[in-house]
User: Fold this.
Amino acid sequence: MKNTKFIVVEGIDGAGKTTICKYIMSLFYYFSIENVIFIHEPGSTPVAEKIRKLIKFSKEEIFSKETELLLIYAARLQLLDNIIRPKINTHWILSDRYDLSSQAYQIGGRGINKKNILFLQNFIKNNIKPNITIYLDINPVISLQRIKTRQKDRIEKESIKFFSKVRNYYLKIAKKDKTIKIVDANQNLQTVKILVKKIITNFIKFSRI
Assistant:
């Protein structure tokens, strides 16, 4: 894992992950880093994108939380086998969500037993961990206010109570893991970008030592 350059952006829906991922891509360009792969979860491979549509937009039948969990890990396995594992030692990889999302949403939000998550992590042999994770922490009231005008997917339609549980689990993990950098995303975008730039700049400089 010495040569890996794997950055993940995390947060509940409406935290600004997509915007910040685009900003980080611009920082890569500024630092003349060209061998960058951007991915998002679930998705980023043809099969995983089909699974993403099922998870987010399927209205054909009721999803159990167990079905949702298995689909998420099926999509992640496709991503691991087709992009992350083959490229991890030669490219910078930036991901909008990764395994921490599964823990926060499935354990914190859905109430899935942690043992089931650990089993699936082991089953798909997911031993690849991000070098650094930027967690955009935001009050669910504010995040849902931000996305109220867009067409919401199945998960975005969840209640504030659900997203509060997800946020609390994110914070629980983030406070124990030094590779997770908490950024206050309740602030205006320019302030958030300044904080993210400092984190990414320090990481890039350290990686080049």
About this structure: The helical segments are 17-30, 46-57, 65-87, 99-109, 114-123, 140-146, 160-174, 189-207. The mean pLDDT is 94. The chain has eight helices and five strands.
